[in-house]
Amino acid sequence: MSKVHKEQIECPHCHSIGTMEMIDEVDADIDPVLRERVLNAQAFIYTCPECGSRILVGNSLLYHDAQHRFIIFFDMERPADYHYQPLKLSKSIIEDYPDYTFRYVTGMTELHEKIIILESGLSDVVIERMKYMLAHYSHPDIARKSYKIRFANYDPDDKDDSEFGTLSLFYRDSNDEAYGIKLNMRLYYDFKLAVKLDPRMHPQGCVIVDEGWISRQMKGGAL
Ligand SMILES: [Zn+2]
């Protein structure tokens, strides 16, 4: 069951007090409305009933998808002392969900992206490893200019290039112009095998898996 609670919010503009429903836990497959509110970030936006100001409210939540077997621990901001150490989880949650993917995620864009990757049945480690290769080797300008490559979608029915479908990624340049990168799913399966054979690419515990994690693992796990 999803869990929510109400909190009083003071509008920073007109100082009137209102209440906001804060989400503590989302059970995505049985509560699609809440899932949608998290995906489109409405779950984190308070609209003042007096003046209509929209305020970003940073709350933490647990996102559970039983159908796709993953659990995400989410914080709006990454703690300053976070260096990819695994979250300290209660033993019971790990034992209750033995075949699950556990991830720690910070930032709304990152949460949206992680959910759609895992809902697509793809490995986020493989996707991040592919993004790393694209940004650092195929298109080194992307890494040099610190653009972030994001996952857009997986289309198993787009069989122009491969019988396995295609993977779409994109990035935005400094003018906020979006550029798409379309990849053959064969490449995904090549990377999947490489990730499987590389012990550095096996996350231990509930960590953030992003470009920084890949980079750290590629360099042998040094901080
Ligand atoms: Zn207001």
Tell me about this structure.
By secondary structure, this protein is of the alpha+beta class. The protein has two domains: 1-66, no CATH class; 68-76 and 85-223, no CATH class. It has seven helices and ten strands. A five-stranded mixed β-sheet has the order 1-2-5-6-7, with helices on one face. Helix 4 crosses helix 6. The chain starts with a strand and ends in a 5-residue tail after the last helix. The mean pLDDT is 94. Zinc ion is lined by residues 11, 13-14, 16, 48, 50-51, 53.
Main sheet summary: 5 strands, mixed
The number of helical runs is 7
Number of strands: 10
Report the portion of residues in β strands: 25-35%
Mean pLDDT: 94
Distance between the termini: 38 Å
Q: How many independent structural domains? A: 2
**Class computed from helices, strands and strand pairing:** alpha+beta
What level of helicity do the residues show? 25-40%
- Gyration radius from CA atoms, angstroms: 19 Å
Short description:
Residues 48-68 form the C2H2-type domain. By secondary structure, the chain is an alpha+beta fold.
Q: Key features?
A:
globular, 30% helix, five-stranded mixed sheet, C2H2-type domain-containing protein, three-stranded antiparallel sheet, single chain, 223 residues, binds zinc ion, Znf_C2H2_type, alpha+beta, 28% strand, CpXC_dom
